[in-house]
Design a protein that fits this description.
- This protein is α/β, with parallel strands linked by helices.
- It has one domain (about 5-149): HUPs (Rossmann fold, 3-Layer(aba) Sandwich).
- About 45% of the residues lie in helices and about 20% in strands.
- The protein is globular, with a radius of gyration of 17 Å.
- The relative contact order is 0.23.
Length: about 150
């Protein structure tokens, strides 16, 4: 039924619960898991914003290396958070200011038939203030979403 399952992760225990549920589905259907992390664009020093100072390119390179290292650490943690024996796993990440859009785009790009992700279950003002990524994916995705609490 599912050939590819996208599992967005942010390195939290809740997202690891989603990995565990996705792994069960993957074993049952013989699916591949695509573990996915959407890194935030690097915050560069506002002092050099708009300037092409020599240090600016070094600062950007350092930020990109740090982002890649963070993504690799989070994806590796997700992959080792549960027993994935017998499950094909692919690790992907991108840089985005809007994680929910990156998640939906990744699901399309990797031809995933379902997105499995965690939710804290916040509602009301706290959900609005925290900008719940899961709610945004639910609202905008045309791909089915399985929410794990």
């Amino acid at each position: 039924m599912y050939k590819n399952i996208l599992v967005p992760t942010d390195g939290t225990k809740l997202s690891f619960s989603a990995v565990a549920e996705a792994a069960k589905l993957a074993r049952h259907f013989g699916s591949k898991l695509v573990l996915f992390f959407a890194a935030q664009h690097p915050n560069l020093s506002p002092v050099s914003e708009g300037f092409s100072a020599p240090g600016r390119s070094e600062e950007r390179e350092h930020a990109v290396k740090a982002m890649k290292a963070e993504a690799e650490t989070i994806l590796a943690s997700a992959a080792t958070s549960v027993n994935l024996e017998g499950v094909r796993v692919d690790r992907q990440f991108t840089v985005s200011d809007h994680p929910y859009e990156a998640i939906i785009d990744a699901a399309k790009m990797f031809q995933c038939e379902v997105i499995v992700m965690g939710s804290h279950g916040r509602s009301g003002v706290s959900a609005v203030l925290l900008g719940n990524v899961t709610n945004k994916v639910l609202a905008h995705s045309t791909i089915p979403v399985l929410v794990v609490k």
